[in-house]
Structure formats: structure tokens, C-alpha cells
Prior knowledge:
Blueprint: H1 2-7, H2 14-21, H3 25-28, H4 35-48, H5 61-78, H6 82-88, H7 94-109, H8 117-137, H9 147-150, H10 160-169, H11 175-194
Helix pairs in contact: 4-7, 5-7, 5-8, 6-8, 7-8
Amino acid sequence: xxxxxxxxxxxxxxxxxxxxxxxxxxxxxxxxxxxxxxxxxxxxxxxxxxxxxxxxxxxxxxxxxxxxxxxxxxxxxxxxxxxxxxxxxxxxxxxxxxxxxxxxxxxxxxxxxxxxxxxxxxxxxxxxxxxxxxxxxxxxxxxxxxxxxxxxxxxxxxxxxxxxxxxxxxxxxxxxxxxxxxxxxxxxxxxxxxxxxx
Length: 198
């Protein structure tokens, strides 16, 4: 993780890790099968940071969901390279699976039918990681272009939606407030889904 923080995810390799810890690359293979396993381990370490220090039953389901989402956002703000790993690697290490299980239990406790839990877990994970990825990549960064340039220099007549929303599109965005609003929308979706029993 230190190598990725310093030089980016593309710099992470078995050779770079061996140099960092002062061993030969072959010595690492007794501990890590290959680069894929190394990346899976990094995902596990990232997701371990999301695990609550207190027991899962200490919070209501929605508080647990919110805490996990906020923890994920903080981890990706600290390690912007992490979003690529979280989007591209499956949850296969024990810590990764534990993080997913926290979401499963929260959804079950919310009353979501078992048949809908996997789908909603994917939706929540994709939203949280996608939001974090958009922040880390600069997609949500404050615009340096004027509104006309941001709209591809097309005439308003070709962008009726943009034209109608112009005053709102040009306002500064509070990403933290937007993240909270999005989590509230997800909470309402979960509650609505919970009313549909198996």
C-alpha cells in the first residue's frame, strides 16, 4: 500500500515489494502466490479498515450502513488508487468477505427479502465506490471552465435539459451533503424493498 501511495498502483509488483522489504522476489512467493494474490490482499487490507471496531449488533442497520459508506469514502480519499482495486477485484480475502457480510446483515435486519439482498448489496457497493472513484479521479472536482465550455460549446437549443437546469448546474456542489442525500435515498429504497416480503 505504501508503494501505491507513493508511486501509484501501476508501480505495485512482486519485484517492487521485494525491494521494499529487502528480500529477493522469489522469497515472496512462499507468502504470496502471485501479483493477483498481492492485489487481493491489498483489497482485503483496504476493506479491513472499514470493519467496525465494536460489535455489529451495537448499531441499527442504517447506522451501520452509513458508517461503512463513510469509512469507504475516507479510505479512498486517503488512497485514491484504491477505487480501481475495489472496482476490479472480487471480495475473496477474509476481511473483504467480512465487509460484504456487514452489508448483508444490515439489509437482512432492515427486513429486505433474502432474494433482494445480493442485488441491493451490489447497488450500495457500486454507488459508494463509484462516488469515491468520481472524487478520486477528479470527475467531481470544481470546474475551471465556464458553463458554456462545460457544455461542449453547443447552442442552448441543442441542450434543452441543460438549458432548463442551467441555474442549478452552475451552483457549487457540496459533495459531502450530496453523499448524505444519496445515502438517505438508498435508505428509503431499502425500506421500500423491505416492505415487499418473499
